[in-house]
Amino acid sequence: VPMVAPGNVQVHVINSTLAKVHWDPVPLKTVRGHLQGYKVYYWKVQSLSRRSRRHIEKKILTFRGNKTFGMLPGLEPYSSYKLNVRVVNGKGEGPASPDKVFTTPEGVPSSPSFLKITNPTLDSLTLEWGSPTHPNGVLTSYTLKFQPINNTHELGPLIEIRIPANESSLILKNLNYSTRYKFYFNAQTSVGSGSQITEEAVTIMDE
């Protein structure tokens, strides 16, 4: 098998899900056989928004021939990763380069995990929600938009409310009685807004 590990491994993080890795080729005489390519082993160490460590799954990408760089797609935003590089000949892999640590920047969050509308009264509704399963960063706020729907399914004016990221419920007051409302709800990080969840609810007709 090859004798030495690739040197001077560098990682260039392009965005929250993509990084580029470079390395110096090994001297051909140390390959001790036919150079087939290089393998990059990489794995997520932890998410920076949740300090939970889980089973670490190593991923491997093979770059054929004498390439000295490669792209690592499909990374998770706002996470810490490690990688190393090995050279491959017909017999197997050489030793791994020292582990290189890199972190991906924040991305936009997934949609809130749920939106529940309860306690209808004449002029109010209570909203409860769950934070996104994948925050992909530090949540900065939620945005709630809502509008009435009349009997012919036409949408009325859209109202927008910003809600602090640490809230998980809200009582909406001063609504019209016996009216159906449509709600659009999403979360934000400093990068931008995530995908929204929608729900409908009706205020009651009389007490």
Summarize this structure briefly.
One of its GO terms (cellular component) is neuron projection. It contains no helices and 14 strands.
Descriptive overview:
Residues 5-107, 111-207 form the Fibronectin type-III domain. It is a single chain. This protein is mostly beta strands. It has two domains: 7-104, Immunoglobulins (Immunoglobulin-like); 112-202, Sandwich (Immunoglobulin-like). Helix content is 0%, strand content 50%. The chain is built from no helices and 14 strands. The chain has strands spanning 7-15, 18-24, 35-47, 59-64, 69-72, 79-89, 100-103, 112-118, 125-132, 141-149, 159-164, 169-172, 180-188, 197-202. The strands form four sheets. Strands 4-3-6-7 form a four-stranded antiparallel sheet, with no helix packed on it. A four-stranded antiparallel sheet has the order 11-10-13-14, with no helix packed on it. β1 (7-15) and β2 (18-24) form a beta hairpin. The mean pLDDT is 95.
